[in-house]
Amino acid sequence: MFLSGANQDVPELRPPSIKGALRFWWRAMNGHLSLGDLKKVEGEIFGDTDKRSSFAMQVIEPQALEKLSQVVLPHKERSFSKWAFKPRQLFQVVFRCRNEKTKQFIENLFPLCCILGGFGGRSRRGFGSISLKNSNYPNTLTAIKNLLDNIVPNKFTLQSNELIYLTTLKNQYPYIESITIGRADAQMLRKIGQVTHEQKQQYGRRYDAIVGSASPRFASPVYVSTIQTPQGVQSIITTLHHASKDAIHVPSTNEISRVQGNFKQQIIQ
Predict the structure, then answer these.
(1) CA–CA separation, 261 vs 269, rounded Å?
(2) In 3D, which of 162, 138, 180, 186 has the Cα closest to residue 264?
């Protein structure tokens, strides 16, 4: 997990980073709201310039977490490395909620945040994934839908092994469009990196404009994380609404669907 503060070379568990991820995924679940309503409700939950957040949080390390120098691009033998938190370690996130309603909200949102994404750098390509130490850890699309229904009732439907978001409002921000789970792979991070490399080679600038790029900066709308299941480590891919403001290359809906579909298929198969 490449999570750090002002000093990018020193891994650090930061509550603001985790809260930021919670805010991001809550927004992504609410694509049916207008921008005005989205900001209003978001302020009531997470706080804004006029009001405090409805919850506080603290990160606790039962024992100091180990760090290691981790290759950033696992599919390349000579990729550069960064300091990161070593995997398979335990830390706690403690929430203090304003009331019972907020408590129930966090009990649904935090697991979804851990399942759909991760924390820190390259979390959209499998790094920083979190498993909850809980026997009821939701690791199927049906269980994920149940959590989503508790936050945004009747907005997701399960079709052909894929969760589909039901909305006709096309807001220009990255809300969830679909969620799918791939097959287990013992070398999942390497596989994600290799597929990313091959797709960039195949599509060039179209890949940058559709699946994400570092320069110009465009955060990938295809969020690839990993999830622990009885079958092993599987990919979980959340496709967000494409909201690039790149004026040079504006891809068509069909082109977005084709390139993103090919990218996802290579990972989940």
Answers:
(1) 12
(2) 180
pTM of the model: 0.92
Domain boundaries, the chain: 15-268
Residue-wise pLDDT for 80-139, tens only, equals 889 999 999 999 999 999 999 999 999 999 999 999 999 999 999 999 999 998 767 788
CA dist., res. 66 & res. 18, Å (int): 19
